[in-house]
């Protein structure tokens, strides 16, 4: 085997793996806090990527309108839930976060889309739009179901995935898109060529892993989120607003998803339905990481990326089969080592 | 036992539908599709709703069934009727293989694991040469009886719906049996079921195979309905769709699967044909609306539609009282059940640095009531768990009838005639008291899943229920026999646990705080019952905090404090023991 090819494959694998790591982290985060297995994570990726690419191409992305529509829905839910004890402060607060904010973003998007904005503006707008979508989705689809079983939440998650994917087709069409590089330029080290884009991918992944670790280890909000993950009722009794924890988790997940999308869309062409498979590979990593451990998830994601790179080189037909079958030995090991803990399920 | 009348009416209605004049042929096609989806969803009801094992991989089993018959009937020219058992065997044996890997996974690994192999298998279907890659296999022969070929959707309609109704009957028979009770206990954790001899991994594998065989049957029918197969309908999206069919219908109910299939298939069809009229020009509007409706439906009825519909029907609570004259065979007695039953020697259990049980030794002889007391956290329940095999001891030994049973699993301990109750009640709340108690007699019955499905288990079953009814009568809960266990008060639930433990026909009964939550009169009745049991030859080891209850009842008392035995003796000597008083009151007397 040729060393150059091997190094090239490893590099390719690490770049993809870093993206899977980000998605895996987001999935672990959302699951731990809300018990939702976030299948729409893949849609956050495509929405982020395609919003960015459309803006950069000077087109108006439909996602900005969706954010406003969902915001209006979320406002309605807020009002309905609080209908017996409405007071002005609550209405104003809900109005600002759910309607005024997306309306401003929509106006900005309309303004900038007409004049091919610089990359930084495109990134900022895409992140904010997708973050709002994530936040409102939690309010509309998941918060009313927060007390139900993991299975019901999962099915709701599938419903959201279907709706978002359908909307993706409506907004972005069936054609694939590519976006401009976040950081252009490149340098070579030996046989390898490092592009600015791939360096950005590594840097952001590492920054997020460290950031999440600090957030959960040191900040009060991070600890509140962990407390919610361990015991919802206990956290509530201790004064933690569990809906806030859920909102933070969805906000982080949608930002991470959108960011991953923005990072890969300059490297690969993305279609409206590409997200599902990308998200699932993040899943594979998250499962290997046991849905709890962030560092293990990150390592597993790199392994998934590298295995994918090598199998697409040697057996491209069986690339997906190999990646998903990678789980079987891992699950086997886990099941052999599984302690006999009693679970009280609902 | 459910009445058969509604099913007969349903079957008659389904049989008559194709004869309704003016019935559009397209509706028959829809009904075919509903039947195919219902078969898969029914398996998921058992697997997910009843057994608590979520699977995304069912579409792959449909694929196995479809591809098996497709390959065998085209490439090898086998008759479709011959490929039916083969399709089922292929789905079933692959379920064994995948099940051995996945069903042992706990919690959320399982659904994700099934999602992973579901996807992997989908890609495999679309890449393998002999399965025709992405194009699949076409020109599959139709089903035929003699010279009659089932070419039209209307003719295969009967094959599909006979399969649905027969499968539903078999599945319901299975649930209403010895094996069914073991399956229904799975969702509530495995400790209680295992304490009565249920081999939980085997029960999980069983439902997994059952669901896979139903999916395989659906696949076989699908292949002969479409007369062509390709990988698309066996992908991850379909796996997910089957799951939400089950959830929308009501995941715990066999007919919920059928209802869910009807709702989802019809809804998709309506959306696909009418939405473009309202919102022309746009692509996947039906997917968007479908997704939104799904979420809305779950928010309105998180338990599914079947239980919601059933709640409008008058409730039927009165069940038939089992014929208690039937006798169940006794547990095989071991020689020596008149001497020392249980000997705990220097048993030790450490959890990390915490020593929960510190070299504790004591014994229980025949016809004796021994109480294990001590302040909270003294290690009493841990000692119980060591004896019953739920936990394994760090060191020391536990012998039953002179034979060491160190680290034997709970299923083996109960076979020796030691049964128990739990400090935190572990009943299946949505099963009746009678059914819960009958789990206790699990090892005294012998009917397997196949005989249960075919109702060949009825004499065995009647004896099991008779024994359960006798023990319920013995503890004084006859009136509550047909109520759901979850609707009883906590004190009554503890008594139900005692009846369940008695069903083992034990030589030694381990009771973990049996009197907690009981009223004064109930406590007295319990004490009388325990004395009767002792006088009848049974021994009792109990953990209890009510000192009045213990002092009046126990022959001997063992006192633990911080995991260490500090005293042992008759109630009279324990009452005056300075160590004991210090442990309870914190001061030297």
Give the helix/strand layout.
The complex is a heterodimer of chains A (346) and B (589).
Chain A: H1 3-34, H2 41-56, H3 63-81, H4 88-113, H5 119-142, H6 150-172, E1 186-189, E2 192-195, H7 196-218, H8 220-230, H9 232-237, H10 242-264, H11 275-288, H12 294-314, H13 319-325, H14 327-337
Antiparallel strand pairs in A: 1-2
Helix pairs in contact in A: 1-7, 1-8, 1-10, 1-11, 1-12, 2-5, 2-6, 2-10, 2-11, 3-4, 3-5, 4-5, 5-10, 7-8, 8-10, 11-12, 12-13
Chain B: H1 5-16, H2 25-50, H3 58-75, H4 80-102, H5 109-127, E1 137-138, E2 144-145, E3 148-149, H6 153-175, H7 178-186, H8 191-195, H9 200-226, E4 228-229, H10 236-249, H11 254-278, H12 285-300, H13 305-310, E5 340-351, E6 354-365, E7 369-373, H14 380-387, E8 395-400, E9 403-404, H15 410-415, E10 418-420, H16 433-439, H17 449-453, H18 458-475, H19 490-502, E11 508-512, H20 520-535, E12 539-543, H21 547-553, E13 556-561, E14 564-569, H22 571-576, H23 578-585
Parallel strand pairs in B: 7-12, 7-13, 10-11, 11-12
Antiparallel strand pairs in B: 1-4, 2-3, 5-6, 5-8, 8-9, 13-14
Helix pairs in contact in B: 1-6, 2-6, 2-9, 2-10, 2-11, 3-4, 3-5, 3-9, 4-9, 6-9, 7-9, 10-11, 11-12, 16-18, 16-19, 18-19
Strand sequence of the main sheet of chain A, in spatial order?
A: 1-2
Number of domains of chain B: 3
The share of residues in helices of chain A is: over 70%
Please report the two chains with the greatest interface, counting residues with C-beta closer than 8 angstroms to the partner's C-beta. Answer: A-B, 50 and 51 residues
The succession of helices and strands of chain A, N to C, reads HHHHHHEEHHHHHHHH
| Helix percent band of chain B | 40-55%
The proportion of strand residues of chain B reads 5-15%
Strand line-up in the sheet with most strands of chain B: 10-11-12-7-13-14
Output the structural class of chain A: mainly alpha
The oligomeric status of these chains comes to heterodimer
Number of helices of chain B: 23
Major sheet characteristics of chain A: 2 strands, antiparallel
What structural class do the secondary elements of chain B suggest? alpha/beta
Largest sheet of chain B: 6 strands, mixed
DSSP strand content of chain A: under 5%
Overall pLDDT of chain B, averaged? 87
- How many domain modules of chain A? 1
Our count of helices of chain A gives 14
Q: What is the residue-mean pLDDT of chain A, rounded to a whole number?
A: 84
Shape category of chain B: elongated
